[in-house]
Amino acid sequence: MSERNMEEKAEQATNSKNISLPMSRVRLIMKSSPDVSCINQDALFLTTKATELFVQYLALSSYKNGSGRETNTLSYSDLANAAEETETFQFLTDILPKKILARDYLKSLEEMEKDDDNL
């Protein structure tokens, strides 16, 4: 599938009144907040549609800048890179951290401990 076809499908989905995400799940997530007592059906629809469009935008941005363009795939590392490198997605860096090997993490911990001991 070419990039142009993907963008056309994204635009069609944006203009569509259909949604792909289950509204019952979105309602459940919204009700998990203690500040929410009741949810208007219009508010639920708009929140579901906005969430769907956001996920679509994140996926397209990650795909365009990712390493899987040749193989037509989207990987976790593409999403993590988009979260780290794109200002719009900076708030996702805690949710989508870059993967790091355990030995590299332990090495960085040792270096931080050495730095703390030197102070």
From TrEMBL:
GO terms for molecular function: DNA binding; nucleotidyltransferase activity; protein heterodimerization activity. Keywords: Acetylation, Coiled coil, DNA-binding, Nucleotidyltransferase, Nucleus, Phosphoprotein, Transferase. Residues 20-82 form the Transcription factor CBF/NF-Y/archaeal histone domain. The keyword Membrane does not apply. Gene3D superfamilies: Histone, subunit A. InterPro entries: CBFA_NFYB_domain, Histone-fold, Transcr_DNA_Rep_Reg. GO terms for cellular component: CHRAC. GO terms for biological process: chromatin remodeling; DNA-templated DNA replication. It is found in: Nucleus. Forms a complex with DNA polymerase epsilon subunit POLE3 and binds naked DNA, which is then incorporated into chromatin, aided by the nucleosome remodeling activity of ISWI/SNF2H and ACF1. Does not enhance nucleosome sliding activity of the ACF-5 ISWI chromatin remodeling complex. PANTHER family: CHROMATIN ACCESSIBILITY COMPLEX PROTEIN 1, HISTONE-LIKE TRANSCRIPTION FACTOR CCAAT-RELATED. Heterodimer with POLE3; binds to DNA. Component of the CHRAC ISWI chromatin remodeling complex at least composed of SMARCA5/SNF2H, BAZ1A/ACF1, CHRAC1 and POLE3; the complex preferentially binds DNA through the CHRAC1-POLE3 heterodimer and possesses ATP-dependent nucleosome-remodeling activity. Within the complex, the heterodimer with POLE3 interacts with SMARCA5/SNF2H; the interaction is direct and enhances nucleosome sliding activity by the SMARCA5/SNF2H and BAZ1A/ACF1 interaction. Within the complex, the heterodimer with POLE3 interacts with BAZ1A/ACF1; the interactions are direct. This is Chromatin accessibility complex protein 1.
